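Fig. S4 source data, part A: sequence.
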Amino acid sequence: MKVKNYPVTRPFLPPLDDYKSQVDAIFASGWLTNEGSCVNALEEQLQSKLALPKVNLVSSGTIALHLAIRALNLSGEILTTAFSYIATTSSIHWSGCRPVFVDIESHGYNIDLEDLERKITPRTSAILATHCFGVPCDVAGIQRIAEHHGLKVIYDGAHAFGTLVNGQSVFHWGDVSTCSFHATKLFHSVEGGMVVARSAEVAERVRRLRNFGHNGEEKFSEFGTNGKNSELHAAMGLSVLPHVDEILEQRRMQAETYHEVLFKAPLRLPPVNNLTWNCAYFPIVFEDEQRCIAVKTELAERGILTRRYFYPSLNRIATDSPESCPRAESLSERILCLPMFHELTQKETVSIGRLIASLSSSSSFAQ
């Protein structure tokens, strides 16, 4: 198969004139940051688009998690998934709390409820779960456990823009939900993120904390940080947002195409028939790590880049937390995320899928 180079992902770029018109207005105003008109407009449009309460735009999905933990006054131990990006765990460390790792579901990517409840102790203050690859957690089950034990719930929804639960945005769930607007995400502002809080009081505290703790021009309610986003980043978000339905539909078509081509291959595939999923990524799971690495290497030699996302499992990175999470550890060794970006055509998706099907079934990759 002769192909051009395919990255794992590529940022969606809106028409240049759309962004330029936003930047022209910024230059005319001379207002570059500190909650300017673009930031305010993007917050309002996101609230309307996703039917959310107050949205606080911030500088990254990582700072969104920091602010969520701080705004909820968390301390002690936070139960969290062993299968996520390292920012999920580093946010807990940076906030002075201790992550306690919970294993994932046997046939999914998200936190396992039985292991979650088993690891609750008097030191536990909250649950921080990730909607991996945009596939929603069992939010109702997590909420029942949290209410029973008096715990707060934070969702790392970095991948989850456009994911629905019961017809509503997944960001409606949890005491606080966060999202990343990094350039690799379905919806992006180059760099950025948002915090959505169920409580108006917590939302207001996030707003103050992202701006050094300011509570007025010359007043401070507490020590905060610089978590604001700039007008130039928000301008990109305003330029991308009108295209987000088109982006979501293109991803769904790509995911359905991959699923159709790979359906008979010896792989575990994501739940494409789940209409609540935003199809942000297309992870495939191999029977063993050796075959996973061999296929990844062969694809790279042919110009097709994949990613072992997430590898290694987080409990193996955080050496001061010895919890065993065998399902997360096993999944992290056997998973690859395939190329998914807006310009990837159906023909190209079919060709990549067929090559992976052939390689994953080839006896030359067997042990």
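Fig. S4 source data, part B ends here. The radius of gyration is 21 Å.
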